[in-house]
């Protein structure tokens, strides 16, 4: 054998070996493998094409037509295929981890699929996947029993959106049941960490969309919607007319002009010119010296918007890097968000303070006459018009203003509020609610605060009047009530083994969220201690108003140090327990004491800041909180509270593709939502809040002389 022949034989042997290696490792397909691979990938995007699945004949026939068109490369079929996600079974759950796998598909491209050559259109459906432990006695098909529609009515919660999900683009003739049966045929048992599991397929008609379904939902106005639309148009006409007349007559009025007719005064209550001047005014009420409250209210509102945004970011499915996002809860600088539910106690404190401060001044002016009827009516008229405006918008137009893969979440909130509107208007929705707290059907969930606040307001005369009339006895009675409420909370935490607070990093606590909400978080008597602390602070500020309070420098420094420590303990008290793997069980004493006391401790810390700033011991903190620029934004805080969470829900439900969450994304999106919330609050204030406050002052004004004579 010559040298040349030897080299050729060596090269040929090497080439054959490389060819075998490539074929064995899938780099080169043998005959038939490429076709099988194509079938696999098409089947993973079109699960209803399996003839052995228990699906309807119509769905199966249309799916076969779709697959034939796809093989012939028809444009509508290619578009439909590209709009569908891929079902990669072994990526759904890996080693029992909860890393979420998403294949979202293309929502808008899918629902726009249509062709004259076919009898169906594109339909976008989202399927979620869960895990269910399986015993050896159960059959292979048992996992399908938990995949029925009954699941969605009995067990569904907002955390289902955290499960792995795939968005499929299918013929519109296929139902959610067809899709569920087809996918259940593909998935089954998995041995994960030595245990048997079945993959539960969760599919519902609520998560399936066609263009026709979207159009019907967005263009169908029932009678109630038309009535609400007419009322909104009438309100807009009145505001426009009042503004035009007010602007027209402003230059004609001089100091010697006779008083306006009552009808014109009534009309000008709705003038946006007048109400804008009121909103943008930076001059404070001369009767009030609590200027630091404006900064606290604005900062508190901004904090709540951030909490809502961060909270919704952990429960919607549109996040690629959810494990990374959840890990941020382990960082010390995010603890005020990780379990910052105590932020709302700032507003309970402010509410109790302002009610007591204002009503005691009123009692002084009226020689102790407590007009209980007017007390309640004024409060109801103060809160309800803007509340009703937002409620009516949610009931009627909320589901009509957008679309998206999770838009059913918005629609179900609207339906829930429509069926439960009376509990909102009676301010009892924290006790009368349509579903579990974690259910998407819970509805206008953030308004539990308004119900609690109103119920505390109903009870406030039981403390305010005794304190004003019988000072020491009233203070003792109020203090005893405060400790009694803390004692009730103590018993509840021990009896029901409630978590100290809800930490997103501790799965065992999240599983108790419904019970925690019902027994503590939404319970008026459990949330009342900060309100009572506010009443006591309001009495103290009332008694010391217009007086120079001298505080020893050591006592002053001690007060600031103690308030700072109280605040840090509340924010970081649960930080050693954020990692459930390192600390599986929280010490019962720590858990109960923190759960019972942290609301009140936070209220005391904020209360000291208010007291010190009011009496000139706040320094640069008082100068910042009393900044006049805060005043207009402070007036918008109520509207911000009513709108911000619904705005966040709209943003999440409208999102088409999963997002990559980072600090920069959170900062930029948060400020966008915050600005939008204040913009909507501005509209509500000008069109609803301020006009009805003007009406209240015009129709129910009482002068001091009349109040003093009512005592006799």
From TrEMBL:
Pfam families: Acyl_transf_3, NRF. Keywords: Membrane, Transmembrane, Transmembrane helix. The chain crosses the membrane at residues 6-28, 336-359, 380-401, 448-468, 475-496, 524-542, 554-575, 595-617, 629-653, 665-688. InterPro entries: Acyl_transf_3_dom, Nose-resist-to-fluoxetine_N, O2_lipid_transport_reg. It comes from Daphnia magna. Residues 56-210 form the Nose resistant-to-fluoxetine protein N-terminal domain. The keyword Ion transport does not apply. This is Nose resistant-to-fluoxetine protein N-terminal domain-containing protein. The lineage of its organism: Eukaryota, Metazoa, Ecdysozoa, Arthropoda, Crustacea.
């Amino acid at each position: 054998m010559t040298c040349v022949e030897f080299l050729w034989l060596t090269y040929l042997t090497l080439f054959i070996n490389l060819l075998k290696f490539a074929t064995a490792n899938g780099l080169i397909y043998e005959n038939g493998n490429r076709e099988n691979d194509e079938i696999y990938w098409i089947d993973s995007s079109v699960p209803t094409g399996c003839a052995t699945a228990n699906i309807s004949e119509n769905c199966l026939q249309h799916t076969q037509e779709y697959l034939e068109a796809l093989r012939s490369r028809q444009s509508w079929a290619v578009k439909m295929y590209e709009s569908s996600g891929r079902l990669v079974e072994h990526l759904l759950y890996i080693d029992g981890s909860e890393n979420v796998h998403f294949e979202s598909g293309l929502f808008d491209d899918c629902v726009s699929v249509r062709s004259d050559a076919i009898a169906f259109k594109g339909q976008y459906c989202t399927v979620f996947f869960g895990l269910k432990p399986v015993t050896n006695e159960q059959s292979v098909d048992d996992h399908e029993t938990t995949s029925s529609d009954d699941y969605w009515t009995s067990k569904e919660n907002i955390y289902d959106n955290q499960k792995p999900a795939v968005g499929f683009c299918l013929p519109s003739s296929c139902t959610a049941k067809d899709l569920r049966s087809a996918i259940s045929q593909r998935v089954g048992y998995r041995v994960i960490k030595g245990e048997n599991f079945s993959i539960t397929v969760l599919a519902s008609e609520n998560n399936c969309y066609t263009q026709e379904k979207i159009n019907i939902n967005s263009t169908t106005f029932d009678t109630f919607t038309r009535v609400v639309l007419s009322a909104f148009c009438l309100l807009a006409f009145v505001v426009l007319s009042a503004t035009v007349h007010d602007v027209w007559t402003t230059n004609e009025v001089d100091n010697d002009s006779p008083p306006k007719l009552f009808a014109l005064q009534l009309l000008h209550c709705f003038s946006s010119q007048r109400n804008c001047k009121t909103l943008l005014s930076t001059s404070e009420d001369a009767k009030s010296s609590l200027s630091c409250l404006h900064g606290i209210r604005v900062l508190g509102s901004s904090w709540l918007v951030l909490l809502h945004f961060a909270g919704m970011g952990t429960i919607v499915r549109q996040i690629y890097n959810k494990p990374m996002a959840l890990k941020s809860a382990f960082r010390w600088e995010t603890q005020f968000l990780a379990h910052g539910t105590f932020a709302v106690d700032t507003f309970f404190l402010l509410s109790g303070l302002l009610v007591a401060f204002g009503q005691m001044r009123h009692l002084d002016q009226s020689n102790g006459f407590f007009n209980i009827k007017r007390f309640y009516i004024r409060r109801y008229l103060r809160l309800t018009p803007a509340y009703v405006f937002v409620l009516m918008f949610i009931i009627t137009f909320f589901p009509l203003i957008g679309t998206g893969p999770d838009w059913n979440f918005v629609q179900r909130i609207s339906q829930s509020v429509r069926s439960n509107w009376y509990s909102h208007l009676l301010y009892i929705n924290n006790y009368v609610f349509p579903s579990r707290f974690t259910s998407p059907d819970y509805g206008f969930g953030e308004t539990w605060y308004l119900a609690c606040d109103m119920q505390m307001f109903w009870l406030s005369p039981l403390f305010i009047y005794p304190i004003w009339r019988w000072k020491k006895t009233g203070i003792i009675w109020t203090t005893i009530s405060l400790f009694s409420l803390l004692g009730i909370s103590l018993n509840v935490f021990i009896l029901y083994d409630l978590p100290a607070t809800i930490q997103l990093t501790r799965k065992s606590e999240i599983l108790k969220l419904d019970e925690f909400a019902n027994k503590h978080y939404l319970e008026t008597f459990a949330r009342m201690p900060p309100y009572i602390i506010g009443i006591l602070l309001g009495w103290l500020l009332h008694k010391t108003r217009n007086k120079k309070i001298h505080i020893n420098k050591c006592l002053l420094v001690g007060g600031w140090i103690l308030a700072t420590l109280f605040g840090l303990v509340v924010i970081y008290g649960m930080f050693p327990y954020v990692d459930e793997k390192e600390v599986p069980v929280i010490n019962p004493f720590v858990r109960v004491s923190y759960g019972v006391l942290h609301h009140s401790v936070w209220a005391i810390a904020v209360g000291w800041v208010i007291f010190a700033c009011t009496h000139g011991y706040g320094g640069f903190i008082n100068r910042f909180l009393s900044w006049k620029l805060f005043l207009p934004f402070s007036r918008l805080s109520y509207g911000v509270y009513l709108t911000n969470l619904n705005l966040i829900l709209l943003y999440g439900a409208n999102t088409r593709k999963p997002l990559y969450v980072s600090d920069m994304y959170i900062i930029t999106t948060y400020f966008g939502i915050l600005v939008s919330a204040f913009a909507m609050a501005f509209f509500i204030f000008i069109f609803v809040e301020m006009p009805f406050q003007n009406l209240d002052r015009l129709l129910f004004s009482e002068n001091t002389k009349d109040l003093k004579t009512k005592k006799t």
